[in-house]
Write a structure and sequence with these properties.
Keywords: Hydrolase, Protease. Belongs to the peptidase C48 family. This is Ubiquitin-like protease family profile domain-containing protein. This protein is an alpha+beta fold. The protein has helices spanning 44-61, 98-112, 122-134, 141-150; strands at 9-16, 19-26, 31-35, 82-84. Strands 1-2-3-4 form a 4-stranded mixed β-sheet, with helices on both faces. A hairpin with a 4-residue loop joins strand 2 and strand 3. The mean pLDDT is 91.
């Protein structure tokens, strides 16, 4: 991962009561960015508590000198950061697309510096699946490619 004092953003997918949402810890802007494709006024307090728990956990984890180039580097105190909730594309009620939105947000921000994700379609599901299978970090990548070529 590298040293904490060189990190700009930390992406933390969070699973809470059968639903995925994303916490992005923006170290540069000192913000906790809360992205939720199916927000709920009833579930919001619990999800925000989960978000804060993760921020506190990461803060505690990164308190060690081992995470920094120098022991004098300032610590990441993300539990004090302001919570931002940008408007994002919403999933269809009754769908199970929350995890796909989380994956899209991580990919889109990395590529385009934006959390604007497209509406989930069969095409976007297939594209994400193919991307995940063919990425260099997949240990089975070459087996899948070989099997596809043989087929």
């Amino acid at each position: 991962m590298g040293k904490a004092n060189r990190v700009c953003k930390i992406y933390c997918p969070i699973w809470c009561d059968g639903h995925w949402f994303l916490l992005v810890i923006d170290v540069i802007r000192r913000q906790l960015v809360y992205l939720d494709s199916l927000p709920s006024e009833d579930d919001r307090p619990k999800r925000l508590r989960q978000l804060k728990k993760v921020a506190i956990f990461l803060e505690e984890l990164m308190d060690s000198d081992d995470w920094y180039d120098e022991p004098t580097n300032p610590r990441i105190m993300c539990s004090d950061y302001e919570i931002k909730e940008p408007k994002v594309t919403r999933q269809d009620p009754g769908s199970n697309d929350c995890g796909l939105y989380v994956a899209q947000w991580m990919i889109m921000y990395h590529l385009w510096n934006s959390y604007e994700a497209e509406k989930i379609t069969d095409y976007s599901r297939m594209r994400l699946a193919v991307d995940m299978v063919l990425k260099y970090h997949n240990d089975k990548r070459m087996e899948v490619i070989q099997a596809a070529l043989e087929y």
